Amino acid sequence: MRWSMILVLLAAAMWACPAFAQDIQDEWDDKALEEAIKRAVEYLWSQCANGSWDGGGAARNGNAGGRSALCTYALLAAGADPQDPRIIAALQYLAGVEMTGTYARALRANVWSMLKGRKHKFRRILRRDVNYLVKGADARGGYNYIPVGRRASGSERRGANLGRYDNSNSQLGVLGVWAGSENGVEVPMSYWRLIERHWVQDQQRDGGWCYQQTGTSYGSMSVAGLATMFICFDALYQDKFIRCRAKTDYTPIVKGLEWLDKNFSATTNPGRGRAHYYYYLYGVERVGLASGYKYFGQKDWYKMGATALVHQQRGDGSWGGIVNTSFGLLFLARGRHPILFNKLNYPGTWNSRPRDCANLTRWVTRKFERPVNWQIVHLGAPVRDLHDAPILYISGASAPRFTDEDVAKLREFVLQGGVLFSEAACNKASFTLAMKKIYAKMFPAYELKRLPLD
């Protein structure tokens, strides 16, 4: 099939994508969600003065401009027009701030990454921010409030000196680098190996993470660790994905997902109650973005979190100040982007190429200049959840074993207007032959036919 045909099919599917889950009825309220986003945006703009949210106060730990970067990032994620004079003023303000703090520099990198195209005038600053963060990780891959670089040894990290680190700064540092990497800034493999080592060493026996190397696992740090593990896994093993040679049941991720499946909450920061709750939700959203998972265990994390935020929103549109509101808005904004593909998780080799949908949706986003998402679903979910996206993608490197109930559910999805798209990872003939039998069982009156090239 020619690329022009593929482009037409993807474009048609993309514009058919629902912005939110279909047919949720009384369980879900699109209008309430849109209204919550609108009110949060209005609140943030009400707190802005001449492109800044910093208020003239002295910033701690080198994080001058950090609050403005966070607010601008949230507004762009929620759909603000980069040509809006208020956004232009915010971008110009951020470009002029001298930032030394990990939080501020990382958040500003995320701002630049939200701008369309790779030739915008802030591209040079994005590269500088990313390089600053890459060089700022300490010798074991952690970050302090002000990055100290490789000169900080492992033993120094235990004191209150330049070697101090914590996993909150470490998360934001990595997310800033990831934002640049996703937008074409070259990041050395040695950096990702260093970061991987840090987070593997800091993972607790129960699969979660805490503020530093030892302690009790809790929500905001556990989602920080899990998102980082997904990011490192993608960066370090992508060449093996192409050849279906990577071991996709990566132990730190498996353990981290088990912790989150067991402990996820949409209304509290697990292990910390309401402390840093909105920051925790932002971390949950980052795990969703990095992994593609729609569910943690049987819990639809986005729907549950969005419902909680809608109910908790204050009369002025905030969730209690600009920082909490920005994190809440960053969580909600994910639902504004249509889902192009659902990828089916089934018993077997469904994930031989873990980043196939991630790479495709990234390419579609850039090609059509419209953000689209993907997610992982399973057949234990109701059929209506499969309709989050117009296309259900089934990949495999061996024959899938679907039950009669599974086949009936897939058939129902198609009869309701969905499209099945199956692909044999690394051209595995066993998968292709098995899927032909499954399609014949699903629709015995119809014969599969090869499409002409035109």
Word description of this protein:
- This protein is an alpha/beta fold.
- The protein has two domains: about 1-20 and about 340-454, 3-Layer(aba) Sandwich (Rossmann fold); about 30-335, Alpha/alpha barrel (Glycosyltransferase).
- The chain contains 17 helices and six strands.
- The protein has helices at about 5-15, 30-45, 65-75, 85-95, 100-115, 125-135, 165-180, 190-200, 220-240, 250-265, 275-290, 300-310, 320-335, 355-370, 385, 405-415, 430-440, and strands at about 295, 300, 340-345, 375-380, 390-395, 420-425.
- The protein has a four-stranded parallel beta sheet with strand order 4-3-5-6, sandwiched between helices.
- Helix 5 runs antiparallel to helix 6, helix 5 (about 100-115) runs parallel beside helix 7 and helix 8 packs across helix 9.
- The N and C termini lie close together (about 5 Å).
- Mean pLDDT is about 85; it is low at about 1-5, about 15-25 and about 150-160.
